[in-house]
């Protein structure tokens, strides 16, 4: 990955991938929102994370740990979440480093379309 590559791992430059979403463009799929949220975690974009959360489940704040380095996103599975859907599921694995140790987070995330925009609802963390 070069410095210009998007953190979400598509191989596209950030400015052609998650960057426009972080600046206000609407993701067209649940998967695109998932990728942009991973990049937001990697870049410390707390406001984007809150704005992309469904209002019914959104917390008051998101406190990101600056010592966590989000390193890689792997998409495991998707269900619905396309251009013409109102709900979708994305299962992913996210690799990270914290305090010199590697870790892996796997979650099956739920998304809904609210007023035409995809939003993260919640997820089930997998062991």
Automatic annotation (TrEMBL):
Residues 29-123 form the YchJ-like middle NTF2-like domain. It comes from the Bacteria. InterPro entries: NTF2-like_dom_sf, SEC_C_motif, YchJ-like, YchJ-like_M. Belongs to the UPF0225 family. HAMAP family: UPF0225 (MF_00612). This is UPF0225 protein C4K88_07375.
């Amino acid at each position: 990955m070069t410095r210009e590559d998007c953190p979400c791992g598509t191989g596209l430059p950030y400015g052609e991938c998650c960057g426009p979403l972080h600046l206000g463009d609407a993701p067209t799929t649940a998967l695109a929102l998932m990728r942009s949220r991973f990049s937001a975690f990697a870049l410390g974009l707390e406001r984007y994370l809150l704005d992309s959360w469904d209002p019914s489940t959104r917390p008051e704040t998101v406190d990101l740990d600056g010592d966590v380095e989000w390193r890689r996103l792997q998409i495991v599975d998707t269900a619905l979440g396309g251009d013409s859907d109102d709900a979708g599921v994305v299962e992913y694995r996210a690799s990270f480093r914290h305090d010199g140790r590697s870790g892996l987070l796997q979650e099956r995330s739920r998304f809904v379309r609210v007023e035409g925009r995809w939003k993260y609802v919640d997820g089930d963390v997998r062991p």
